[in-house]
Amino acid sequence: MALLEIDDITKHYGTHQVLSGLSLSVNEHEVVCLIGPSGCGKSSLLRCINRLEETSSGEIRVHGERITGEGVDLDRLRRDIGIVFQAYNLFPHMTVLRNTILAPMTLLGQSCAEATDRAMALLERVGLAHKAHDYPDRLSGGQQQRVAIVRALMMNPMLLLLDEITSALDPELVAEVLDLVRDLAAGGMTMILATHEMGFAREVSDRVCFLYQGQVHEEGTPAEIFGAPRQEKTRAFLRDLVKAGRL
Amino acid sequence: MALTMTETVRVPRPVHIHRLRSALSVLVALATSGLIAFSILRIVAYAYRQGNGLEIAVVAALFALLSAYVVLLGARAVALSARAGRAVEIHHARELGAQASLRSWNALAWSCALLIATGLAWLLVLNDAAVSRTFFDLALIRNSSGEILSAFTTNIVIFAVSVVLILVWALVIAIARTLPGDAGRPLRLMATAYCDLFRGLPSVITIYLIGFGLPLTNLPLVSALSSSTYAIIALTLTYGAYTSEIYRAGIEGVHHSLIAAARSLGFSHAMTLRHVVIPIALRNIVPPLMNDCISLQKDTALVSVIGTIDAFNQSKIIAANNFNLSAVTTVAILFVAITIPQARLVDRLTQRAQRRRRAGGA
C-alpha cells in the first residue's frame, strides 16, 4: 500500500481554483518532485497534505487512513509529516538548539539531554554544531534552512514536504541545502519536493510530476519528463526554462 | 549620444552668499539682546527690592551671556557672507556662503528661543510676581516636601500593585480576544465587550463608581476594602482594557508563517501561543507597554477623588491651609521627575526595536 494517496482533491480560494481534481500517490522511500509554473498549485498541494490548508473536496489517505475531513487529530498528524518552508520560519527568539529540541521535548516527551544529543548529532551532520547556541538572525539563509530541516527531522517524520526550500537563497548557498536533501534521499526518507531546481529534481527524484492548472498534467521518471515529455504544456514549460538558462 | 554631451555648454550656477539672511540675523540678534538687557535691568531691580537678588542675578548673567553669543553668531554670519562676496574661487565662495547661512539660521533660532524664555520670565514677575508666589513659593515647597513625599509612597504602592495585576489581567483578556473558531466566540465577545466598556469609560468615573459604589453594596469581601484597594481595582479594570489592546496588537503582529511553522511541528493552538506567539509578541510590545506604565503612574493621582490620601490629596490639604498652590507644584515636580527617566528608556527601547526591524530580524 502506498504511504500517501491523494484522491481527486480540489481546493479553491473564493472563486479561484488552485487544485482541480488532483490525484497522486507516493510510496515509502520514494522522492517525488513537483514542478510547474508558479501558481500551478505546488505549495497549496503540500500545505493540504499536512492540513495547514483545507481541501475543498476529495480525500487524502496516509497508510490507508483518511486524513481529510473532520475527526482527524491534526496535531498528531503533523508530528508525522514534516514540512520545510521557503522562508525557513525559524523561531527568532530561540537559539538554533532550542529551535530544534522544543518540539521533541514538549510533544514527544523526550528529556532535554536526549533531545539535545540527537539535535547536536544532526547539527553536526549538517555542519552547524558550532552554531547551536546562536540565534537564527546570526545565520546565513543556507544555514537557517539547514537548521529548519533538522528541526523537521527531529520529529522523525515518515514523510517530509519541502516547499521550494532553495527559492529564497542566494545562488551560492543553494548547494549546501541540496547536498543535505541528497543525503536524506540516499537515507531512504520519503519526500515530496516542490522545486524550481530542475537539475536537482532530475538527479534526486524517483518520479517527477508536472503540475498544470491544479492537476498532475504529466508524471514519469526524470528521464521521461526531462528527456521525452509527451504533453505539449510540459514541453512548453521546459522550453521556457531552457530559454531562461535554468535547464 | 556622446557627441551631444560634449556639445552642451555648462553654465556655472550663481553663488549664494546669503547677504540678506545674515543681515537679518544680526539685526534680530541685536534687537533680542536689547530687549533682554531691558528685562534684566527691570527684573533684577525688582528682585533686589524683594530681597532675593542672588538667584535672579545668576539667571540674568546667563541670559546676558547667551544674548552676547547670539549677536556674535550674527556678526560672524555677516563677516562670512562678506568674505564670500570677495572670494575669487567659486567653490570657496560657495563654502563661505553656506557657512554664513548656517550661522544665520543658528542666530535666528537662538534669538527666538531667548525671546520665548524672556517672555516666560516676565510672566513670572508681572503683577508683583503673582505667578511666582502662587506656584513657586520655595519656602513652602521645601517645608511641604516631607509630608508630600511620604504621601507619594501611596501613589507608588498603588502603581506597583496595579501594574502587576494589569499585565496579567490584560494578557488574559488579549488571549480571550484572539481565541479561534466557533467555540471561542462567546468568550471572544465577552472580552470585546469588556474592552469597549472600559476603554470608553473615563478612568476617573470608574474610580469614583468603584470607590464609592462597592462599599454601598454591603457585599461580603468587596464592601470593606481600603480606598487604595478600590483604586487598584478600578485602575486595573481601566488599564486592563487598554493594555489588552497592546497585547493583542503584539499577538496579531507575529508573522503567520511562524505560527504555521509551529503548527506544522504538531503544536496545538495553546502551545503555539505559549512557546512562540506570546514570547515574540512581548518582545515587540515593550515600548508601548512602558508608555502605558507612565500613563498609569500619572493616573494614580486620580485616586484623590475617592479620598485616598495620596500625594495630590495631601498637597491639596497643604495648599488649602496656606492659601497657596506651591505644595501642588511639589507633587507635579515629583511626577515629572520619576517619569523622565522612563520616557528616555522608552525612546531607547523604541530605537533598538526599530534598528532590529531594519536589520531584518523579526
Describe the protein in words.
The complex is a heterodimer of chains A (247) and B (362). Chain A is an alpha/beta fold and 247 residues long. Chain A has one domain (2-244): P-loop containing nucleotide triphosphate hydrolases (Rossmann fold), CATH 3.40.50.300. Chain A has helices at residues 42-49, 74-80, 96-107, 112-125, 141-153, 171-186, 198-204, 222-227, 232-243; strands spanning 4-13, 16-26, 31-35, 57-62, 65-66, 81-84, 159-163, 191-194, 207-212, 215-220. In chain A, the strands form 2 sheets. Chain A has a 6-stranded mixed β-sheet, sandwiched between helices. In chain A, α3 (96-107) crosses α4 and α5 packs parallel to α6 (171-186). The longest helix of chain A is centred in the last third of the chain and has 16 residues, at 171-186. The two termini of chain A are 35 Å apart. The mean pLDDT of chain A is 91. Chain B is flat. Chain B is built from 12 helices and no strands. Chain B has helices spanning 2-7, 19-50, 53-86, 90-135, 138-177, 185-200, 203-217, 227-253, 256-265, 269-299, 311-322, 326-359. With 362 residues, chain B is mostly helical. In chain B, 84% of the residues lie in helices and 0% in strands. Classes of the chains: A alpha/beta (247), B mainly alpha (362). Chain A binds chain B through residues 50, 52, 74-79, 82-83, 85, 87, 89-93, 102-103, 106-107, 137, 151-152, 155, and chain B through 257-258, 260-268, 271, 275-276, 279-280, 283, 359-362. Chain B: It is found in: Cell inner membrane; Cell membrane. Chain B: This is Amino acid ABC transporter permease. Chain B: Belongs to the binding-protein-dependent transport system permease family. HisMQ subfamily. Chain B: Part of the binding-protein-dependent transport system for glutamine; probably responsible for the translocation of the substrate across the membrane.
